[in-house]
Amino acid sequence: MPDGEPAPRYVEPLLGIVFDLDGTLVLSDHDFARMRREVVRLAERYGVVRGRLRAAQPVHAIMEAAVSELEAQRVPEGTIDRLEAEAHRAIDAIELEALPRTVARPGAEPLLRELTARGYRLAILTRSAEGFCRAALERTGLSTFFPYLRSRSAPGPAKPSPEALHLLLKEMEVPSDRALYVGDHPIDAECATRAGVRFYAVLPESPNGADPVTAERFRTLGAAAVARDLPELARHLGVATNASSS
């Protein structure tokens, strides 16, 4: 937690566990750089001053900056809505191109099987589109573990808004103080800590970029535990099996 902020009170035992999808449970090799460039291109076509947006930012941050810029220009709301719709279509198409390369992250199936056997309510909270999310879960054999799913296609706020996590937990009938969110990205940590939900980090399997996220950084962002992989996460959760420990 940030300095000066009290740690949330958590209640044991856990009732529900929410997972991020891409990078956490599945590996899909999304072309995020292309997504960011495409959103910047579209935003500039709709009137954002060229050079104002940075393609190094996450997609959601680029979109938020673009909308703020257009609102400051008093661009009609309908025009902004069209930008958002076109940007989502472009991102969806790029996501689906990664589907044939998508595989389960090692240790995902035994971890989820054991959590299900022990009665945890499991869910997915992702910034992926609904179509990609469900297709990826089917392709990797993980769909049966998740009766609850919230993607960026769902009505209302999307991750990292804490409200997105609260809406999902309400559907699961799991109180925030008896829930856990697991992810591999600082956005996941932001979402969980702002929602008052405990957060466990799983380090990215293939860190890339000039500023790879580290265990120390995750702890600074509020992670209660950091695992190097899913078998280690299983041990943190007390559900390790021979299959998940190998």
Give a structural overview.
There is one protein chain. With about 250 residues, the chain is an alpha/beta fold. The protein has two domains: about 15-30 and about 100-245, 3-Layer(aba) Sandwich (Rossmann fold), CATH 3.40.50; about 30-95. The protein is about 45% helix and about 10% strand. It has ten helices and eight strands. It has helices at about 30-45, 60-70, 75-95, 110-115, 130-140, 160-170, 185-195, 215-220, 230-235, 240-245; strands spanning about 15-20, 25, 105, 120-125, 150, 180-185, 200, 225. A six-stranded parallel β-sheet has the order 5-4-1-6-7-8, sandwiched between helices. Helix 8 links the parallel strand 7 and strand 8.
Topology record:
Layout: E1 16-19, E2 26-27, H1 32-45, H2 59-72, H3 77-97, E3 103-104, H4 108-117, E4 121-125, H5 130-140, E5 148-150, H6 162-172, E6 179-183, H7 186-195, E7 198-202, H8 215-220, E8 225-227, H9 230-236, H10 242-245
Parallel strand pairs: 1-4, 1-6, 4-5, 6-7, 7-8
Antiparallel strand pairs: 2-3
Overall radius of gyration: 18 Å
Gap between N and C termini:
33 Å
What is the beta-strand fraction? 5-15%
Within the CATH hierarchy, at the fold level, what is the topology of the largest domain?
Rossmann fold
> Can you identify the CATH superfamily of the largest domain?
HAD superfamily/HAD-like
Q: Please tell me the total number of domains.
A: 2
